Amino acid sequence: MAPALIAALAASLAAAAGAAPPPGAASSGAPPPPREPYVAPADGSLRDTIIIGRPVRHAAARDSSVTSVVMLGTGTPNADPERSGPCVAVVVRGHAYLVDAGPGLVRRAAAAAKNGIAALAPQRLGIVFITHLHSDHTVGLPDLMLTPWVLERHDPLEVYGPPGVRNMTTHLLAAYSEDIRVRTEGLEPSHNDGWQVHAHENTAGVVYRDSNVTVTAFAVPHANWTYSFGYRFDTPDRAIVISGDTRPSDAVVAACHECDILVHEVYSAERVASRPPEWQRYHAGAHTSTTELAAIATRAKPRLLVLYHQLFWGTDDAGLVREVRRGYDGAVVSARDLEVYR
């Protein structure tokens, strides 16, 4: 590697290692006024809350003054061609904040941008919050680090996540060092800092705040992981909670507490019996069944419950919703890639 690039890489990693946590804590101002409860339309379509398929057809989807949740990936480790790996975008005032980096996220973001959500243009993807370091939540991280840079992102990527995420990004930069050298020292015209990464290792509490959003991490129990987080996003007009991977947890109930949107992972309580006993034990200790999620949502009281990271095992979106509704009478939908919620 050329000396200039070595120096730049070292500076990037040093900045990440020494980066101070973002200033401030949760806002101490007056609480926002109560929001009207969500009322599902009579036909059950939820289309007044969910913008499906091609948001460009709906003026509301392009209204950057309203916080939106965009499902860039709803999948699991299963290689479902209809579902990219886990990635949720919270879009606030024309800025996108990503949660997780599952495979396919940059191309899903490009599709969302083509559909009218300009904040998700690849070159504008600049910040991500990782829930935990399972491969299906991080395989897209090198794509997020490098592809937007190739497409002329000028600033380093900000990565927040559990302990270990800095080591991961360090090794990814090393793995792609020759690519970075060729692109920065060769014929390509771009010589900005967009390939660099600032990695921030967080614990529970407020991990990030700017003029658009306050992001709070909360610990969740997921299999044998020492560190696994969900995230709450407080914006000027919405409170959004994303569970990450977790078995049933009071932490999710506390983080949501009548939030606007709760995005929660789920597996089919009916179909798990079809799995081998060792996998049933794993899922019970790592994930949340439809029956368990109904109980969680009843206590958390979100205006809208969004299912993602769904394990179907032969059922479908409608089947999962039916299972949840046996124990929960609030608004619920099973998400698909590129759906938009607000």
Structure keywords:
globular; 7-stranded mixed sheet; single chain; 15 strands; 342 residues; 8-stranded mixed sheet; Metallo-beta-lactamase, Chain A; alpha/beta
Short description:
This protein is 28% helix and 21% strand.
Summarize the topology.
Elements (H helix, E strand, L loop, with lengths): L2 H16 L31 E2 L16 E6 L13 E6 L2 E5 L5 H10 L12 E3 L5 H4 L2 H10 L6 E5 L3 H11 L1 H9 L11 E5 L3 E5 L4 E6 L9 E6 L4 E4 L7 H7 L4 E7 L9 H10 L3 H11 L3 E8 L5 H9 L6 E3 L5 E2 L1
Parallel strand pairs: 4-5, 5-6, 6-7, 11-12, 12-13, 13-14
Antiparallel strand pairs: 1-15, 2-3, 2-15, 3-4, 8-9, 9-10, 10-11
Helix pairs in contact: 7-9, 9-10
Folded structure, characterized:
This protein is of the alpha/beta class. It has one domain (3-18, 47-341): Ribonuclease Z/Hydroxyacylglutathione hydrolase-like (Metallo-beta-lactamase, Chain A, 4-Layer Sandwich). Helix content is 28%, strand content 21%. The protein contains ten helices and 15 strands. The strands form two sheets. An eight-stranded mixed sheet has the order 1-15-2-3-4-5-6-7. Strands 8-9-10-11-12-13-14 form a seven-stranded mixed sheet, with helices on one face. Helix 7 runs parallel beside helix 9 and helix 9 packs across helix 10. Residues 1-49 and 51-60 have low confidence and may be disordered.
